[in-house]
Amino acid sequence: MTTTPQPAIQTPPVVSPDAWEAARQQLLVKEKALTRARDALAAERRHMPWMAVEKTYEFEGPNGKARLIDLFEGRRQLIVYRAFFEPGVFGWPDHACRGCSLGADQVAHLAHLNARDTTLVYASRASQADIARLKARMGWAMPWYTITDRFDEDFGVREWHGHNVFLRDGDKVFRTYFINSRADEAMGTIWSYLDITALGRQETWEDSPQGYPQSPPYKWWNWHDNYDTGKAADPRWLDILSDSAGAAARRREAEGKGCNC
Q1: Which of 76, 39, 74 is CA-nearest to residue 166?
Q2: Cis, bond preceding 93 (omega within 30 deg of 0)
C-alpha cells in the first residue's frame, strides 16, 4: 500500500516541562480574560430590551397544530433553531443541511436545559413525517416542528440558519435575542444555550437585573435522569460543595473514589 507524502510543517519548539508550563500560564492569562469578556457579554444580553411578539405563529408538531407559545412546553424560555431540511436543500430527502446536521449532533442532553426552565426546539419546512424519519436515522431527540407561515421570514431565518430566543410571561411572548452565522457554531452545550437567554444561567454570581431567578452554582446540577420536581438534593453532593476544608474530597481520594469535577 502506498501513501501520499504529507507536506512538511513548521512545528513549534519542543521544550522542557517547566518551560511548557510557563508558556501555558502566560496563555492562561488571556484565556481567563476571554472568559470574563464572555461573561460580560452574556450579562449585556440579560440587560437588553425585549420585543413583544404580536402575531400568532402556527407550526405542525408530532401531536398536530401548535402555536409559538405551545413550543415553550410550559417553561418560561424558548430557543428556536431554524434548521434547513426541506426540498431544495442539499441532502434532501435523506439528510438535512450538512451544517445544521453538524450542529444537531452537538446538542447536549436537554434535561439540564429544561431544569433551568428553558426549552430548545428545531424548526424546518419539511413535513412531520420527513422530520420523524430524519430524527430516527440520525439519533436526534430534540423537539422538531414544521414551519407553516412567515415565522422564518419575520425572524431572520428564511435564507440562513439561526437561533431565536423567546421568553414567556403568562400568555405574552417576547423575543429577547437572536444569533446566526458563526455564532451558531459555538452552540451545543447547556452553557452556550443559557448564555444567550434573557435569564442566563440563573446563578447567583451573574450580573442580572433585579428580581431575576437565581440559585447557587453547582447545587442545581443533577444527573439527567434525576431531575425530579421537588426532590431534595443528594446530601453527598451538597457535602462536596460545602466542605470548604476539602475533607470530603480527601475522604473520597482515600477511598479510591476521586472525582474530576
Answers
A1: 76
A2: yes
Q: What is the DSSP string of 60-93?
A: EETTEEEEGGGGGTT-SEEEEEE---STTSTTTT
pTM of the model: 0.90
> Which distant-in-sequence residues (6+ apart) come within 8 Å of 200 by Cβ?
42, 43, 45, 46, 194, 206, 208, 212
Q: How many CB atoms lie within 10 A of CB 182?
A: 7
Largest CA distance in the chain: 67
Q: Cα–Cα distance between 132 and 4 in angstroms, integer?
A: 42
Contact of 95 with 101, CB cutoff 8 Å = yes
Write out the CATH class of domain 51-194. alpha beta
H-helix segments, the chain: 17-46, 98-105, 110-114, 128-138, 151-154, 190-194, 235-242, 247-254
List pLDDT tens digits, range 107-150: 999 999 999 999 999 999 999 999 999 999 999 999 999 999 99
Which residues in the chain are classed under CATH 3.40.30.10? 51-194
**Nearest by Cα to 220 from 240, 205, 203, 244:** 203
